[in-house]
Amino acid sequence: MSIRETVSSVRPAPAGRTGEAARGTLGGRTRPRRRSRSLTAERLAPYVLVAPAVLIIVVLRLWPLLLGVNFSFTGDGDRNGTAVGLDNYLRLLDDPLFRQALRNVGLLVLLLPVAVAIPGLLATFIFLRVPGHRLYRSVYFFPAVLSPVIVGAIFNLLLAFDGPANTLLGSVGLGPVDWLGDPDVAMFVVVGVHVWATFGMALVIFLAGFATLDAALLDAARVDGATLPQTIWHVIVPGLTRTIQFVFVTTMIGMLTSMFGLLYVMTSGGPEGSTYLPEYYIWIQQGQMNRPALASAASTVLFVIMLAVGLLQIRLLRRAGRVD
């Protein structure tokens, strides 16, 4: 081998190639770091976005709830701030008004399927575009924008003993009914008025659920000659299972926590305490009887009832959906 060939064989590589190799090596080291940082940011982004809402819920909801539960184990009056154990809960069980309120809660649970079925059927008719469906959509939602006080005042006039309802019954030969003065009738009347005043929101939720329903299933049912009840039971109900679950839970919560205005205006808990509900009982104990600890105990019981009923409804509806 000559001297020239030996020198050329040991000659260093050009500077340009060395720089490209170096940049490739550095790029290979930095890219995984940048990629890991981006993955970490993507994983943290949902928590950062949810954090303000979680903070608001904890500060304004969960923390007051825990304080109320703790306060329910203290006394009222002379024993204010003193730990009394389960005395307040025992007093609730001995109070006939609170027991009546719990019986009325059971009545609401029994009437809940009716309160959900009414907006569900109306939404079905609107979805199927019955004649005048656009007008019905506006008319059905209109009561939802009215104040419970206004609704209660209107129905007080309509259902008075000498009001239009009894006048209409008299014109067909039926005797007058004491709609708001009969203990066996008053609670059903108030619940009916509440359903009429609030089903517009459930109607909107059902219509939103219909937007996710597969139209091909409805066309297949129509081709197979399915009747309207068969289409509702075998196609619409299974397709709207999650929507029905949501409406069941929200309707139950509304019936337990949003009827105070109607009760206050229409019956004031009467006659004979037959229209008491836990929320009205809580207001009486806190606002009139000055028993905040007892009211906190009643609030805790109401929360437990709503939680238990809601979970039971979701479980039953999920099981029914799996069976279908």
Which properties best describe this structure?
2 domains, mainly alpha, disordered N terminus, 14 helices, MetI-like fold, single chain, 324 residues, 0% strand
Structural class of the helices, strands and pairings?
mainly alpha
Care to count the β-strands?
0
Helix and strand succession? HHHHHHHHHHHHHH
Helix content: over 70%
CATH topology of the largest domain: MetI-like fold
Rg from Cα: 32 Å
Strand content: under 5%
- What best-fitting shape do the alpha-carbon axes yield? flat
CATH architect. name of the largest domain = Orthogonal Bundle
Regions with little confidence, pLDDT below 50 for 5+ residues: 1-10, 13-28
Q: What is the total number of structural domains?
A: 2
- Average pLDDT works out at 84
Membrane topology: Multi-pass membrane protein
Protein name: Sugar ABC transporter permease
Region (Disordered): 1-37
Transmembrane segments: 44-63, 105-128, 140-161, 185-213, 246-266, 293-312
In short:
This protein has helices at 3-9, 15-71, 87-94, 96-127, 133-141, 148-158, 164-171, 186-210, 215-223, 228-239, 241-257, 260-266, 278-288, 292-323. With 324 residues, the chain is mainly α.
